[in-house]
Amino acid sequence: MRTNPWMKLTMDTWILGMEASSVIGLRALKMAAGGPAAQTEAALMIDEKIASTLALQMRAATGGLGTTPHGAASRTVAHYRRKVRANRRRLSKI
Asked: Origin, by domain of life (predicted)?
């Protein structure tokens, strides 16, 4: 039986949302504690968002996201999932 690739993309996007929610919670806790660590995290958050967006735009401009709508959407979600997963691992360390 053939699977629907858009359904997989839907699930990957849902998982990205759940992972992003956990990162938001972890960052909120870190920032609520205040101090230099909170300031560093806030600056890192902004820098990461800008760098990630620019990297994705470069991939799109150079054809790195593929030639089909599904390919572009899948690679975009995968790009952000890698970034969010790395942040979740980093912020989960005590």
From this structure: Bacteria
The pTM assigned to this predicted structure is: 0.87
Answer whether residue 13 is part of any domain.
Answer: no
pLDDT in tens, 30-74: 999 999 999 999 999 999 999 999 999 999 999 999 999 999 999
Q: How many domains does the chain have?
A: 1
**Domain, as residue range, for 77:** 38-86
In a domain, 55, yes or no: yes
Q: Quick count: other Cβ atoms within 10 Å of Cβ 65? A: 20
What stretch of H or E contains 31? helix 5-33
Residue 74 lies inside a defined structural domain of this protein: yes
pLDDT digits (tens, 9 = 90+) for 4-25: 889 999 999 999 999 999 999 9
